[in-house]
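Job type: complex structure
Entries:
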Amino acid sequence: MKMNPFREEAIVRLAAATGLPPEQIDSALTYPPTPELGDLAFPCFAAAKARRQAPPAVAQELARGEFQKPSDRIASAAAAGPYLNITFHRHAFAEWVLGEARSAAEDLSRSAEGGGRVVAIDYSSPNIAKPFHVGHLRSTIIGGALYRIFEALGYRPVGINHLGDWGTQFGKLIVGFKRWGSEADLKDILALNRLYVKFHDEEKKSPQLAGEAREWFRKQEAGDPEAMRLWQAIRDTSIEYFKRIYDRIGARFDAYAGESFFNDKMEPAIHLAEKAGLTQVSEGALIIDLSAHGINTPALLRKADGSTLYITRDLAAAIYRYDAYRFDQLLYVVGSEQSLHFQQLFKILELLGYPWAKSCNHVAFGRVLGMSTREGNVVYLEELLDEARERALKNMRENVEKRPEVEDEAAVAEAVGIAAIFFSDLSNRRIKDYQFDWNRAISFEGDTGPYLLNAHARIAGIIRKCGIEPARSLKDLDCRLLPEPEAHRLVMQVSRFPEALRQAAEELEPAVVAGYLLDLAKGLHASYQVLRVKGEEEKLARTRLELFVAVKRILAAGLRMLGIPALERM
RNA sequence: GCACCCGUAGCUCAAAGGAUAGAGUGAUGGCCUUCGAAGCCAUAAGUUGCAGGUUCGAGUCCUGCCGGGUGCGCCA
């Protein structure tokens, strides 16, 4: 969708009249609290300061001067205290919006503003051999949403799944396998999980197990054949399991470069740090002291036993990623509890002299609280999705007389369940701890994913049943037939889609898109009793239908970005 | 103890430093012979944790408290 020419004209005229730079006016423009006041609002405080006048006087002057000139786009402007409220010729505006929505049917949101710049996004990145639970889901869906938002804005995103497939946890699993496991367990993700849990239980009683695990990981890093064989088997089993989950929730990645991929790249990275004079040996370990930079915890590059750590691999990975992708931004979608780790990492990159260090960003998100079964265990993702699907199915069957149109009941239930889970997560600003509640996460009423699906399916129903063919071209429409406040509200909301995407990308916050879609769906739900299509005069019916079609396209595009497929019937 | 994050309606959350702080949920009361009621409309609910400060203007920025979360050398 192109830049709004109505807004553009307002900016040009305000710039001419006030002498302020257009960019400043663009960023100052807001919206009036109610649509009756107008379609754009210009707060006159900055202009007043520049001219040493009172803001209301400036607003008056603009309304009586510059905005008296006739225009095809701007109908009027009125001073309201320190604000200048600008009202469009609404039929012309509607015509422009519907035309945009129509001509850009393949992808409404497609924009050139990203200019093909690369945004590398590290997300999901589960730890192999640990169960995939709801905490991993947050990274997966936030990262996936950012990926698609950047893509829509014309950036070139690269999705990287930095699998946790190297580290001491393999030592733990190998010890568990050696002591309590069988060969068959290597092929069974649940059995591997049990071994991992058992190791931790036993470790409390027998602390020497931790040392054994470290020793196995040391052997693994040294290339010990037995350790490598077991590592390979466990890794294969885990990846197969992850792919099944990703398939179910529609997660995709461009690269699966796990931590093990950087085995041969860690020593060069360590050498760089040594050459730069950053490192020192402390208690037998190789560290970087960052206390001069306000970080009181030193970063450990190498343990006393010679094996490497998480940050060593992340350091090598960042350097590799810049070489491979020449990214404009590198994003890490990882829980906020790791913020110290990323502070250290980014500071080290900066100290190594990489100018792109400042382009690295930790997209932190809060913890998932209250997430456990009756037995007090964490809930695995698959259980969660199954439960959501079952609740959706139950709901559908209870109201079967109201939903006679659903053909594939099971598929719809799955989609509704996923919409509920995804949206309840994505609708919160990511930094907040996420208070998980079964009833809320799987709720289908109010501000939920299914509410959005319902708006989409409702429009699909109108299109199917209204009895008229959609307009072939804009000539079949007459936007003067859309005088209702409900219609204007929808037109305004549709026009603001690109704005929502831009803000979401800027703040790295998919919740902005989620909130936007809720507004749009509310506007739709509040309008369709008033804006009837069926049985109306043909031109009126076509014009209203066209508006609904535009809303439907935006809902589908926005939902898709959040990882939620839209439904025609539900 | 130090560092980072969070305190907004009973609950879960919104609000680029800008107009009368808004939604959902729960509560109460209405709306299905008319394109789908997973919907709509209405009512009730607030000292934005506390105290200062900056600003024409602060829920938003700064300082100090209070409360909660997370992290703090050989896990990831």
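Summary: The two ends of chain A are 29 Å apart (CA to CA). Residues 167-252 of chain A form one domain.
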